[in-house]
Amino acid sequence: MTAPSRLVPVVFRALVCAAAVVGVVIDCAYGSVPVVLSYFTIWTNILVAVVLGSSAARAWRRRPDVAPLYRGGVLLFILITGLVFHLVLANPSSPFNVVAELDRLTGARAVANQLLHTVTPAGALLDFLLLTTPRTLRPRHAAQWLAYPLTYVTFALLRGALLAPDSARRYTYPFIDAARYGYARVTLNALVLGAAFYALGLALVAADRFRPTPPLAPRPLRENRISSPARGPLK
């Protein structure tokens, strides 16, 4: 890979990392930091910043990329962040939509909303399709990735149970609002989302297996041999 083409993944990943950082910083500047840091979107954008920032640094130093388990997991999580936002929260026909609240966002907060829910998911997907070596994800990763949403749902429900009933933003998302829908409905919602996570994880693994190698993706290192595969003296 030539020097200019080697810079492409470095610059692109650094830009996606910066988009995530700027979005999180703006949200924290305009809101309550403990509340902002309670959202799945914020958790996931922080992960995007850490993983893609580390990946950019590794590409710059010509070191092996971040492990596929983490790269693939972050891609899955941020894609689901974007999909849930656009299909559920920002969709007027969804029973869980927050369109009225989104319409009140202006200025920097509107910019942050787009960075966190649109720019970083699109950037992570483009990085996967155009700059990442294929055939590194495994079916077992799809099951391992479920630990992340399970951790988040557990945190969100515990947080909501511990806060006073009149607390603002007691439950971070309407589909896990146990006070409004009850734990049975929330459990069903979580199971449906978990199944969707797993199905999308498997789809991501399948896509990684069959996609062509992008021109700018690093080639896997070949095994060095000190002898021929056949029996015989060292060569």
TrEMBL record:
Keywords: Membrane, Transmembrane, Transmembrane helix. InterPro entries: Pr6Pr-like (IPR049713). Residues 216-235 are annotated as: Disordered. The chain crosses the membrane at residues 12-33, 39-57, 69-90, 110-133, 145-163, 183-207. It comes from the Bacteria. NCBIfam families: Pr6Pr. This is Pr6Pr family membrane protein. It comes from Streptomyces virginiae. The lineage of its organism: Bacteria, Bacillati, Actinomycetota, Actinomycetes, Kitasatosporales.
